[in-house]
User: What shape does this take?
Amino acid sequence: MASPKKSRMTPQRRVILEEIEKAKSHPAADEVYELVRRRMPKISLGTVYRNLEILTECGLVRKVDLGDGHWRFDGNVENHYHVRCTCCGRITDLYADPVCDLEDWIGKQTGYEILGHRLDFFGLCPVCRRVRETEERSARIGRGPTRVTTTEEYDEGGREGGKS
Assistant: This one.
């Protein structure tokens, strides 16, 4: 299959790539489809899926599996790690020096040619942690459960008033 870098970038492929690059939420394929449909209402789900595969194969998009059973797509193809909230599924990029020395060491120990690695972190995002702490406080003083707030009501840093 010809690379979109070398061959003609179709309008559909360009819009899919732009939407993934804009999204900081690491959207699943169906979420990419919904984002793209706002700009191209007649695009099919199949076209989005096919182009996601092509963009991934060409290295323009990274396909990410963070253990939740669904593939997510990342427009940032630079080496970086992720942290995923085990409560709401929010994914945040982490930038740290890659553990390349570990790859060299494992290669020498095993005889494998190490092609790469995946290191994922998981925990509670600031929003879910705050909700859990509020619920725990309420339970200690005998109040009922608090309203669960969605991550859409917070910005990237977990502060009220933005979308994640």
Notes: The first strand starts at residue 62 and ends at 65.
